[in-house]
Amino acid sequence: MKEELKASVVFSSITIFDSFRTQCDVLITLLTRLIVAKVSLDRVDDFLVGTELLDAYTPNITYRENQDVVPRDEIAIHEALFTWTAEVSTESAAAQSSPSETERRFVLKVDQETLRFKKGCLNLIVGPTGSGKTSLLMALLGEMHYIPVAKDSYVSLPRAGGVAYAAQESWVQNETIRENIIFGSPFDEERYKKVIYQCGLERDLALFEAGDRTEVGEKGITLSGGQKTRLTLARAVYSNAEILLLDDVLAALDVHTAKWIVDKCFKGEFLQGRTVLLVTHNIPLTASLADFVVSVKDGRIMSQGSLDVALQNVESLVEEVERKTVELKNEEEKEEEEESSASSEDVPDGKLIVAEEVQYGQVGSSSAKMYGYAFGGNHAILTIGTCVGGLLTVGGLNVLQTWYLGYWARQYEVLPPSSVPVFFHFEIYGLILLAAALISAFTYAFHAVLAVRASRTIHIRLMQSVLTTTLRWLDITPVSRILTRCTGDINTVDSRLPNMLQELGVLGTRMITQLIALVIYTPIFIPPAVVLVLLGKWCGDLFGRAVLCIRREQSNSKAPVLAQFEGALAGIVSVRAYGAEEAFEAELRRRVDANVRITRTFYNVGRWMPTRIEFLAAVFSASLAGYLVYFSNVSASAAGFTLNMAVTFTGAILFFIFTWNELKSSANSLERIDGYLNIEREPGASSTGEPPAYWPASGDLRVENLSARYSPDGPKVLHNLSFHIRSGERIGVVGRTGSGKSSLTLSLLRCIYTEGDVYYDSINTTVLNLDALRSKITIIPQMPELLSGTLRQNLDPFGEHDDVTLNDVLRSSGLFALQKTNDQDKLTLDSGISSGGTNLSVGQRQILALARAILRKSKLLILDEATSAIDYETDAIIQQSLRNELGSDTTVITVAHRLQTIMDADRIMVLDAGRIVEFDTPRELLNREGGVLKALVEESADKGVLIDMAVEGR
């Protein structure tokens, strides 16, 4: 209070405190980033340290001490246990201890005698659903944890000659058919053509315009289940591996195709002398080829040797094989070999996945409007105006408080120090600061609320757009591209865009208020300021064009990295089995390098602009300071105020240009999201599309002139189908691959483009809302989806049923028939289910999906190969349960390759090339000379049983 407030002290202090405030802002930003980095590093560390590894990648595992007893040239297991989790101890596994209520632990035991497969021949692995057949293959591949139970325990799978694996859940890459079959092996055209022929793919390739150059899409979406299975088999056969592990590759094939695979492929030249381990339920079709049979039940090896020995030890197989003793007919197939004369230029490229579009020029105005409406809501002008008004007021108050300090200091120049009212000036200055702080807090809080609303609105719109799009759009768009928009681009909208908009508002209002001050005090510097603005704009335009292009490329380079991760993880077992880890790692590095190069360039270009901004600001400030010192007669306080305004003004205007261009580059995320808001979508709900409350009262289904296609301009896959299914009928649908079976089910659900009329309980489904229609139809796909949680949550996610009801549907679905009463490892309502149901066999997943369908009690139930991975005995139990448990007015449409599944149906529909070629009762169709169904039955190994089923029922 005793010192005079001089202008030199005031404006020097302001400069110091401004610099200190800037450094504090930087420090807070760095601390925030350090916290984020620590969280990310902790998550990475938890993943690296806490992830359970396979035994082959785990140091100091005990069985490596016994490598001297392992036979080098045998496929064998001796005195060992195998588990899916490393937490199971040797003692608990050997005792088969009871798992916890929420965790189910499966143990495969080979502890009675050495399991030794025969080399150079076909080995069958048989057993009921969930018995451990796939687990046995996984144990040999090292995908399960190995627990030795004796000093001389070992597990051996020679890999020197190579191993090939065809999974039960067929895994294909998002590549062409040819690249999926070759899978990194040298291309041998003669071998390749023979493999295509032996795996029955010639007819399928003829259906594709681009032949084997057709892209299969993510997860093989362009292929049927049978086509994917044969493609996976072809990959294994084409490889030069000495050992082939085939997991139930016949399950998804119709009778004709399965017989073709056995006759042409399994008996063909490429499997001669190779060791094949085949898991199958189709014993009669493959028994004549098997030199060695292993039977598995409840995780134990029941027998090994001949088929007769296996039947003696597994009673459930006896009846099945006794019914199928009819000898396979060795009919000579008429083979028509057509050589294409078209040149490579005439063959379409087969592209399915559309290349990700890269925009050019500035970000479109539609993206800005989208964010503006999301940010401002229904009163965008008012809300945005409030934010801008608040920032202008804060900017004006900041200029006012700087000016008032100069005015306060000038009082000491015109008045005696004792006459200056210090407390009065202090109160005025404090009120200015208080007003600025309050208005600033309100403005920032208001902006934060609007930013959160904008992020939420855009995210909801993006989710609604993607979740309501057509199947065709999902077919041609990789999931990785969707993920980049739902993660990286949404993150930009959540944080980067609001921060830059706020910074632009602060810089813009600061420029306006400080420019007014400069014009008032130093009008001579208006021309230099204009020159400064023009130079800054020139640099900004140059920077903006470069950084926007780089930003777009950077955004697009993330999706291939995610796609490679996703593809490798989905088929990690196959990748490891083939020994293709290095090839996948090399491809991943290539894609990561491409992303890192663009990202590094983006940050380097980002440093170019600030350097020039700082230089221009320094030149302008130095020029103004020289003018004020040597050529101006203004007072010290006015000079200090002007210089302070000039320094902050130059920084504000140049950084405004920089931030503006940064905003435009970040707006690329808005552009990418906006593109997904305008994708093709399914029809929305309307009030006129709501059905009556009682609907559907029956399962009556009438179809008139139904045609369907997968894209508006694509070829028809169904041609003028007309039929009537009475309520309560059980309809079987059969046909060879590509005949239109799955297309028919999709058209009933309006998942693809349809023409004609479908009447469900007398109401035309074309006028119904899609959610109303689909919620009243239950479909069980070949590969059902299960969610992470308990079995109860998967059956009844909304908690609408009690445990008694849930257990009843599990019993009806046939699950309990697979489990012993005292089985400590049996599935219960509290058993844990991993994401996708990966801790269950495919057959068990299909059974749970059936239980879920029974629980829904829909009037129309569609089974699309829903029991393909289930053994015949369990399939019979399920079919009997469906007849008993479903209401008399429930219509069941069963799509199946297994004739046994549908031969006792009320009527059978036979499709071929999208047309109905036969539709009548099984008895009538079997009496029809030259009939398609009759031909399929004649080719079947259990012809007599199928005829009996058609005549008498089960």
Architecture overview:
With 954 residues, the protein is of the alpha/beta class. Among the domains are: 1-51; 359-677, ABC transporter type 1, transmembrane domain (ABC transporter transmembrane region fold, Up-down Bundle); 697-952, P-loop containing nucleotide triphosphate hydrolases (Rossmann fold). Helix content is 52%, strand content 12%. It contains 30 helices and 24 strands. The strands form six sheets. It has a six-stranded mixed sheet, sandwiched between helices. Helix 26 links the parallel strand 21 (860-864) and strand 22 (891-895). 42% of the residues are buried.
How are the strands of the largest sheet arranged? Answer: 8-9-10-5-11-12
Quick one: CATH class of one domain? Answer: Mainly Alpha
Provide mean pLDDT, rounded: 80
Structural class: alpha/beta
Q: How many strands in all?
A: 24
- What is the share of helical residues? 40-55%
CATH superfamily of one domain: ABC transporter type 1, transmembrane domain
- The CATH architecture of one domain comes to Up-down Bundle
What's the total helix number? Answer: 30
Radius of gyration: 36 Å
Which percent band covers the strand fraction? 5-15%
Could you name the ranges where pLDDT drops below 50 across 5 or more consecutive residues? 96-104, 323-348
Overall form:
elongated
Distance between the termini: 106 Å
Quaternary structure classification? single chain
What is the name of the CATH topology of one domain? ABC transporter transmembrane region fold
How can the largest sheet be summarized?
6 strands, mixed
